[in-house]
């Protein structure tokens, strides 16, 4: 038995002191091939420091062995010594048989550094030099997947699957392809692949993608089942709750929707979008006070979220709480964060407060985007009538009646104005 084998046996038996002695004897006495094998075994067992010692010893003896340089570069990357890794990789010539492998390792290094363009360049160069190598195609696909460039990932995964490669490096390519299709909105293609994965082999993210795919295909019953399965296995997966609630809403099961989103609140109380969805569903359920409570909580968490701000403003307007709406929106006006919908809400609030100049200004701002909105036009016409601006009243009434010609009351008002 060689010293290398003895060292491995001792390591397996937990005899660390004896292992260290045998390891040194192996370094001094075993053949180069045996030492290389020992280094690979130790690396696979997580004892990379000893692997590094062997590779460095061998490199001194074989200074032109590029395979050893790349192995040492990989170990340096594992130890976050990027400069050392780059130094080893730079020693591999473009004419070396190991150059393609060095490009692959370089790509990994640059990706860990966040230098994605350089990483991609290295992989594309490797693909150009070895166009029929599945490992490179897989590496490119994984690069695009992890950097969320799913359109490019799809083509590469599809090519590998068509060639008969369904798994590589313990990665399920069918799963990757299904998720990639879902991420680019090709849900019909996505579901065909995602449904091939056995539930026991799905992680939480893939379960979510399948449920999300059903949701986007408007198959809400399957979506509810899939989201519920995910909730039961991973209740902390808070992203599922708004979609589960919306699935119930689409099936007109508002009570179930409210229950589902309240479960989400219990799981994640710091997600403003869950509070927002809870507010919207509470409104559907006729729970107006509860809706405001949820929306205000969402705004407390995310004060700059304009969607939540708008929902609160709409709530105040629909409940006639114009002074509360002014208190909500006037600071936003000061910050110049504004849109036509909020201008309209402000106009109504200023009108109620008797601040006609400010109301008129906001009606004008809102007109830029709401000039063909019947609700806006009707309120604006009534406002202009109230302040005695007959020309603006007639102009606004005409636009309104073009859209709602059967409103007899407003038509009569317009006829009065014409006859003045």
What does it look like?
This protein is mainly alpha-helical and 420 residues long. Among the domains are: 318-367, no CATH class; 371-420, no CATH class. 76% of the residues lie in helices and 1% in strands. The chain contains 25 helices and two strands. It has helices spanning 3-12, 16-29, 32-44, 48-61, 66-78, 82-90, 99-112, 116-129, 134-146, 150-162, 173-183, 187-194, 204-216, 220-233, 240-250, 254-267, 272-284, 288-301, 306-318, 322-334, 340-352, 356-370, 374-387, 390-403, 408-418; strands at 167-168, 171-172. Helix 6 (82-90) packs antiparallel against helix 7 (99-112). The longest helix is centred in the C-terminal third of the chain and has 15 residues, at 356-370. InterPro entries: CellSynth/LPSAsmb/PSIAsmb, TPR-like_helical_dom_sf, TPR_rpt. Keywords: Repeat, TPR repeat. TPR repeats lie at residues 204-237.
Summarize the amount of helix as a percent range: over 70%
Assign the structural class, choosing from mainly alpha, mainly beta, alpha/beta, alpha+beta, or little secondary structure: mainly alpha
Shape: elongated
The end-to-end span amounts to: 115 Å
* Rounded radius of gyration (Å): 33 Å
Task: Calculate the mean pLDDT score and round it.
Answer: 93
The stretches of 5 or more residues where confidence is low (pLDDT under 50) are none
Counting DSSP E segments of at least 2 residues, the number of strands comes to 2
Strand order in space, largest sheet: 1-2
- Main sheet summary: 2 strands, antiparallel
